[in-house]
Design a protein that fits this description.
- By secondary structure, this protein is mainly β.
- The protein has a seven-stranded mixed beta sheet with strand order 5-6-3-2-1-4-7, with no helix packed on it.
- The protein contains one helix and seven strands.
- It is elongated and about 80 Å long.
- A hairpin with a 4-residue loop joins strand 5 and strand 6.
């Protein structure tokens, strides 16, 4: 290290040690305001995977206990889904989010067991914007 840097370093260390000493009981404010370090940004959360959807034609529907049940014929087969009651008729085209599948679900109200049924947050009638 160069001699003038050693002198500077020694001076800084001396001043730092003297700054901690108190002559009176009152704390001294810093000579200049020190900016707080900027908060670190949390890493972005990975995007949630899109919920798979099924679309098709309603071939059976029934209401029971505040739910509407629909059997939908899709391009890959038939599915059962249920959501809060909404107006739908046989022949309507719907889109169903395939969320909350339940196997061997027994409805006491309908006295029927469904091998698999999707309890969806909503079922959208195609061509009817804003409806469930």
């Amino acid at each position: 290290m160069r001699p003038h840097r050693l002198v500077l370093l020694g001076s800084v260390l001396t001043l730092a040690s003297l700054g901690g000493c108190k002559r009176d009981g009152a704390p001294k404010p810093p000579a200049s305001p020190v900016a707080a370090p900027a908060p670190m940004m949390a890493p972005a959360a990975p995007a949630a995977p899109a919920t798979p959807m099924a679309s098709g034609t309603v071939i059976e529907t029934m209401d029971a206990a505040n739910y509407t049940y629909v059997r939908v014929k899709t391009s890959s087969g038939e599915i059962w889904a249920a959501t809060g009651q909404f107006k739908v008729a046989v022949g309507d085209k719907v889109s169903v989010p395939l969320e909350m599948p339940m196997e061997n679900f027994h409805s006491n109200t309908l006295n029927r067991t469904f091998p698999i049924i999707y309890f969806a947050s909503h079922i959208e009638r195609q061509g009817a914007p804003g409806t469930k």
